[in-house]
């Protein structure tokens, strides 16, 4: 990969929330987001909802609400560290080729959490960079399923 852009855009900002239904109600009723998608990801230990604005199929912005599935979930640990209150847990950058971007980031000394990408929301491929190598942000990189890439 050359020195051009690595990232397409901010795919979503992820909020840790103690209760998914309550958080959906707040963000939809008060802030006008729409639920685009909801799923359970056992491997990541989350129950999640993706919320969007804009026309269906061409969202302007997305936020992801992440509630813990169990006590060992990374989200449970994050909430505990944060006094049980929700907050921004991650920022996710969209990429076109997660394997190429992962290789470039590794070459540049970034610590990625997984040997190979895992499955994320809606069948996307996801990888995370540890906050210690990003200046304190948990950074997700996400390659959407081919049909939803742009
Ligand atoms: C921990 N730290 C954070 C952080 N979590 N800093 C910024 N943002 C966060 N979210 C800091 C923490 O304060 C410590 O700093 C340091 O990192 C190491 O803490 P730790 O006790 O080792 O933290 P752990 O055990 O909570 O692990 C942190 C990591 C964990 C990042 C390794 O959260 C992880 O594996 N995350 C990736 C998976 C994930 O987040 N899944 C849920 C979303 P000091 O005290 O040492 O300075 S799933 C998802 O996004 C999906 C499905 C999707 O988008 O499709």
TrEMBL record:
Keyword Amino-acid biosynthesis in record: no
EC number: 5.1.99.1
Domain named VOC: residues: 9-144
Pfam families (alphabetical): Glyoxalase_4
Keyword check for Kinase: no
Alphabetical keyword list: Isomerase, Metal-binding
Catalytic EC class: isomerase
Cited InterPro entries: Glyas_Bleomycin-R_OHBP_Dase, MeMalonyl-CoA_epimerase, MMCE/EMCE_epimerase, VOC_core
MF terms in GO: methylmalonyl-CoA epimerase activity
Protein family (similarity comment): Belongs to the methylmalonyl-CoA epimerase family.
NCBIfam families hit by this protein: metmalonyl_epim
Record-linked PANTHER family: METHYLMALONYL-COA EPIMERASE, METHYLMALONYL-COA EPIMERASE, MITOCHONDRIAL
Name listed for the protein in its UniProt record: Methylmalonyl-CoA epimerase
């Amino acid at each position: 990969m050359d020195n051009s852009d690595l990232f397409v855009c901010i795919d979503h900002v992820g909020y840790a929330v103690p209760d998914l239904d309550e958080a959906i109600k707040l963000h939809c009723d008060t802030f006008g987001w729409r639920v685009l998608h909801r799923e359970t990801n056992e491997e990541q230990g989350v129950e999640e909802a993706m919320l969007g604005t804009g026309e269906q199929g061409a969202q302007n912005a997305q936020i992801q609400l992440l509630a813990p599935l169990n006590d060992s979930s990374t989200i449970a640990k994050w909430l505990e560290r944060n006094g049980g209150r929700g907050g921004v847990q991650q920022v996710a950058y969209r990429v076109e080729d997660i394997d190429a971007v992962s290789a470039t980031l590794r070459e540049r000394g970034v610590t990625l959490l997984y040997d190979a990408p895992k499955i994320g929301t809606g069948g996307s491929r996801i990888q995370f960079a540890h906050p210690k190598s990003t200046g304190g942000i948990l950074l997700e990189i996400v390659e959407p399923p081919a049909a939803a890439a742009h």
